[in-house]
Amino acid sequence: MIDLVSQLTHRKKGYTLEAPFYTDPEIFATDMDVIFGQHWIFVGVDVDVPQAGDVMLVKLGQTEIAIVRDDDEEIRAFHNVCRHRGARLVHEEKSTVGNLVCRYHSWVYDTTGQLIHAEHMGETFDKSCHGLKPVHVRSLEGLLFICLAENPPADYEEMERQMAPYLAPHNLREAKIAYEHDLIEQGNWKLTIENNRECYHCSANHPELTVPLFAYGFGFDPTELEPAEREHAENYAAMLNDNHRDWESQGLPSKEIDRLDEMVTSFRTERLPLAGAGESHTMDTKRACRKLMGSMTNAKAGALHFWTQPNSWHHFMGDHAVVFSVLPIDAEHSIVRTKWLVHKDAVEGVDYDLDNLINVWMATNAQDGELVGYCQDGVRGKGYVPGPYSPHTEMLVEKCTNWYVGRMLAHLARTRAVA
């Protein structure tokens, strides 16, 4: 039996976690209970369920959630479990229904989750007591978050207050999903997130992604720079300040907000300039879609980055958006779910070429999946010991890991206090 409190309390700051946190099924079960069971989890976008009656399934470990747009256009979420004898209710990843009907004994629920039909249950049976079990769901300017806890973290409102002005110009509710892709990574969910929270590895592993990205936007050791490199870094810093000033004058909030290790519902955002033509995450750095998103009027508006703990990162450009979620499968496997969004009126083959839209991140995801697999292979071995994060390029990984440790310890302390 692993003493989680001792392991977490004695974790060395600035270092990776001990191997069991990436491999042990018991710790994974605790992760699913504490991290994915008690916090706001990003699961999709409003336009995953664009019309009344549309349903989307999301799986977190062994728990399935049905996300439904009801007849009044409100998005609701329920545990995907019939209240009769526990049968799985919805079976397709996406579908459209009039009502939700259990295939086992034909109990029928409307799209608000109320039980409206159940045969042979007797005169004293009260249908109103057997509606679907609800799950908290919130939309942040078109980004869907759910929380399985009875009482979800209240600081979601603070994230919403700060982030809504950044996201609103891109107007995801007036977008459509041009493409979505699931990649199963051979690694623990924390390794996937650690990999995402740094670009130390980018120059050696992401030839496509480093075309639109500036190398100096993701950290560097100033003591290692040659004079020419130092000049480039200083020029980048000046350009960043100029861009932030110009974008904010256009009504595009851009300056960094970093709350990755300060809140229960933690997040980070910043609008960063893009290289080359400066328009999009494409191989030629030009816009991938002719129709701009939302109220955007400038294709050269950089890329707005938005990260949330514990499982998402997103990029919003003038012409399209790419949203990512990490959905744990088990201790050593995770799904990286990616969705590309364009303006709802954009026509494939006319306004955008699909390959051009998706190829940078399709390549990057595949490369990252391979790297995460390397790490998972390594942490299984007896030679693994926690290694140090770079203070110049992996400082956000440390914040992510420190947030995880803090949330786990807080929960375990509450559990001990109750016991």
UniProtKB/TrEMBL annotation:
Q: Give the top-rank taxon of the lineage listed in the UniProt record for this protein.
A: Bacteria
The cofactor required is: Fe cation
Q: Which Pfam families match?
A: Rieske, Ring_hydroxyl_A
**Which GO terms of the molecular function aspect are on file?**
dioxygenase activity
**Presence of the UniProt keyword Oxidoreductase in the record:** yes
Q: Which UniProt keywords apply?
A: 2Fe-2S, Dioxygenase, Iron, Iron-sulfur, Metal-binding, Oxidoreductase
Look up keyword Cytoplasm and say if it applies: no
Domain named Rieske is located at 40-146
What the entry lists under PANTHER family is as follows: CHOLINE MONOOXYGENASE, CHLOROPLASTIC
Q: Quote the protein name from its UniProt record.
A: Aromatic ring-hydroxylating dioxygenase subunit alpha
| The species this protein was found in | Fulvimarina uroteuthidis
